[in-house]
Amino acid sequence: MGQLPAYEGAYESVRTVRMLRGAPGVGKTALLDAAAVRAADVGMRVLRASAVAFEVEMNFSALHRMPYPLRHHADRLAGHLRDTRHRIFGLAPGPSPDPLDASTAVLALLGEVSVERPLLLIADDVPWIDRASATVPGFVVRRIRDEPVVLLAATRTGVDWLFHQLQLPVREIGPLAA
Fold first, then answer.
1. d(CA 114, CA 86)
2. Contacts of 127 (CB under 8 A, 6+ apart)
3. pLDDT digits (tens, 9 = 90+) for 52-77
4. Is-contact 122 47, C-beta < 8 A?
5. What phi and psi, each to the nearest 5 degrees, are found at residue 48?
6. 0.90 exceeded by the pTM?
């Protein structure tokens, strides 16, 4: 991290991967919004996806949304990884990528752009993230230990979600005051 001294303190303060869990309407999204503002204020790049139930059957719908702002950086990747990223974004013909290929391409892309400045990845309503997309953050989270990439996600209490298999640290959220 020596190459990112301006971000050192900000990154150190949020170095963890965290899942916020609470009842509907308690303010999880408001906390994610506040985290996004704070991260942007200290110069982090914020990538965000909010899942919706009607996209749960659409492969890579959440993954398409979160790193989509980085689509112009995909040209920095090696040929096969670049082609995979372009297929995820719908910018190249071909079949839907294999989950390992998609995960590897996203990991490479995040590693490439995090050299410029740290990243905050925000995933809201994770129970409705399509399975193909959900496997990618799981893959990435297990490999970003030394990268300036942070994941903050939110889920409802009492709802099963693929991310629970990652055993992320969970912070229970009660109703927020106005």
1. 19
2. 51, 155, 156, 159, 160, 161
3. 878 777 777 777 788 778 877 877 77
4. yes
5. -135, 145
6. no
